[in-house]
Amino acid sequence: MPDVVIHDIARKWLLLIEAVTSAGPVDGKRRKELKELFKGFKTGMVFVTTFENRQTMSRFLRQISWETEVWVADDPDHIVHFNGERFLGPYPDTLPNTR
Question: What is the pLDDT of residues 45-83, one digit of tens each?
Fold first, then answer.
């Protein structure tokens, strides 16, 4: 399980939040694990890694998966987005199958 799970009912998003101090960042392997764990959930998934500060974040930059978000506690009003076509939101590979 991730450290924090938030269900945004209005947006139909499931935010899966990992504190880097407990399980490491949301890397490609962890992203796949979380997708599998929540595959039956009927909303899009948003993956977030949290850090205490930018110095700690810099040690993990190469591991962070694309199409994820990063939040840093010492700069709480900002989110760093790792590539993709949108800022903060689920991607097609994390949306429920509607067929």
Answer: 999 999 999 999 999 999 999 989 999 999 999 999 887
Q: Helical H runs in 2-99?
A: 20-23, 28-37, 54-60
**Structural domains in the chain plus CATH codes:** 4-85 (3.40.1350.80)
The answer to whether residues 41 and 56 touch, using CB atoms and an 8 Å cutoff, is: no
Contact 20, 60 (CB under 8 A): yes
What are the Cα distances from residue 6, in Å, to 17, 61, 64, 97?
Answer: 8, 24, 20, 21
pLDDT tens digits, 3-21: 999 999 999 999 999 999 9
